[in-house]
Amino acid sequence: MINIKKNIDEIKNNQVLIEFKGVSKNYANGTHALNDVNIRINKGEFVFVVGASGAGKSTFIKLIMHEEKCNTGEVIVNGYRMSKIKRREVPYFRRTMGIVFQDFRLIPNMTVFGNVAFSLRVVGASSKDIRKRVAAALSMVGLGDKARCYPNELSGGEQQRVGLARALVNNPQIIIADEPTGNVDPEMSYEIVDLLTEINRRGTTVVMVTHEHQLVRDFGRRVIMLEKGRIVADNEEGAVQ
Amino acid sequence: MKLRSVRYLTVEGFKNIWLHRLMTLASVCVLVSCMLLMGVAVLLTYNIQASFVSVKDNNLALVFLDDKVNDNEAVEVEKKISALSNVKKTEYVSREQGAESFRESIGTMFDDLFENDSTFLPAKIKVTWKDLSKTKTEKAIEQIKNIKGVYYVNYSKGLTKVLNGIQNVINTASIWIIGLLLFTSLVIIANTIRITMAARKLEISIMKAVGATNNFIRFPFIVEGITFGLISAIISTGVLYLIYNSTIDQVRQFGFLSLIPYSSVVWYLFGGFCIIGVVAGTIGSLISISKYLRKEGSEQNAFI
Fold this sequence. Notes:
The complex is a heterodimer. Chain A is an alpha/beta fold. Chain A has a domain at 2-96 and 172-234: 3-Layer(aba) Sandwich (Rossmann fold), CATH 3.40.50. Chain A has eight helices and ten strands. In chain A, strands 6-7-8-3-9-10 form a six-stranded mixed beta sheet, with helices on both faces. A four-stranded antiparallel beta sheet of chain A has the order 2-1-4-5. In chain A, helix 7 links the parallel strand 7 (174-178) and strand 8 (205-210). The radius of gyration of chain B is 31 Å and the shape is elongated.
């Protein structure tokens, strides 16, 4: 716990939220997923990570979430050094971020309310607090009237918005969205990114992986382009590539 | 873990039992089968031990007295023997009584033998032991030999040894059988739960992604395991009651065998079943999720 507090103090004094220092990642099957990646993402930024299949986008996200460890270099997220983080600290680290998945990953036998509330149950929030915050999150994503529905009763777009509500209900520092528009229709894609933009406007850092170039161009944010495990473009100033 | 989390996770555990009712049924059936086998082994052991006790009750040492000892002195000797710690009961058989019972046992063929002297057999004291263990009986026999008026002590050394040996074998065998059955039920229950894990690994990956600790993920599984164990214990105790009572009825028809009543062991069995059920159910559940707890998100989904 002391270690976690120390890390949180470090974040408060630091504007950089995610930092990759000379990061390389090779898988056991010989795939070179990332090659000497150096990058900094500051607090409050909205970043698109783009690239073709196999460019290293998923590995990039997995390293941030600590689903994978890099072979060389250092990844620092929210003040946590991924090479030093202890196994028992990982859940507490993950609570500082909200994750949105391409395949929604909602628990099928839980209602919309239950799915969103789950993030708060994990941290031991009170029932009153849960009701209040879940209602706020659901109304933000426009699903206030669907709280009692089950995931299979919702459209793809609605399911993804539940995923978004679950990611933001804990007031995370960062939202990591792994191709959140991959399984929804184009119109809904824009709505999802609009929502992420709104969340970002309220101060949450957003990292969104996508391969939809048109969408990226339309929103005009910082874009990190990966190709064969290397960063080939990064408009840190937010200019559209 | 906070109390409200414990409450929430307990409710989740019970919900899961109903939600995955096929798995519940399979796990309970496995546990009940193993418990029934264990119960049969325990009842068999109890009954064999009980019948040994009655056999041992008939296992006597015969203390023959000196010819010079009269009836009054014999009573004194009997008192001294009764006072020994390992002696359960004593019975004095005078010369006349001894001769008479000898005569009864051999019939009328040797009647002439008794005509001149009906006191040709020595007086004796029948001694029944409390504890048949070698050390205790031999110690008591030494003490009896030192009593004035005792001529000779006759006891069946071999039978005691054999009975104790058989009892030890039965005890060891039943411990092994119960141990093996416990291990078997653990393995089977872990596999049964693992089979239905496919649907739940998604849940586990989501739980991990939102920052659930391993204990938080484990808790509902432990609730499930304990419930499986307790349900199985109740069913097993009931089924065993039915089986055992019908066996008692059958055995009674033969007349010569008597079985211990179920009521004398029911609480031991139920207690034992509860402990075994809870341990097997909990450990079985934990074994089956441990593999999934080590995996992370996408690894989890690729994992079958």
